[in-house]
Amino acid sequence: MAQILTGGVGKIEVAEAVERLGLDGVDVTVSSDLDAATRLRTGTADYYLGACHTGAGASLGLLVGLLGQGACHTFGRGTPTADEVDALLVDGKKAFGFALDRIEAVAPVVARAIAGRGA
């Protein structure tokens, strides 16, 4: 089962968007960015989805600092395709940020890609 943590200003909305999908093999938990970074580093969580006004500040800043840029990606205000997300997952990205107004467009694409890969 893939453990997804949510954070940033829109952490509750992101969790709700993922939960509404009813994906098998995905568990979502609302978190703080510090807790998420710790859990990702220790392997007690698999992925992080964060939303803020820009998709790179409050949603992802601390994770970049603690996990490194190689583990993080911001979609900003863009909307990725499933193939783009798959490529990022293959590349080892674990923490994703996006803008608040993109939650309903981005969170489902990322969550479905994660569910398709398993943990």
TrEMBL record:
Q: Output the InterPro entries linked to this UniProt entry.
A: DUF2620
Q: Which domain of life is it from?
A: Bacteria
What name does this protein carry? DUF2620 family protein
Which species? Streptomyces boluensis
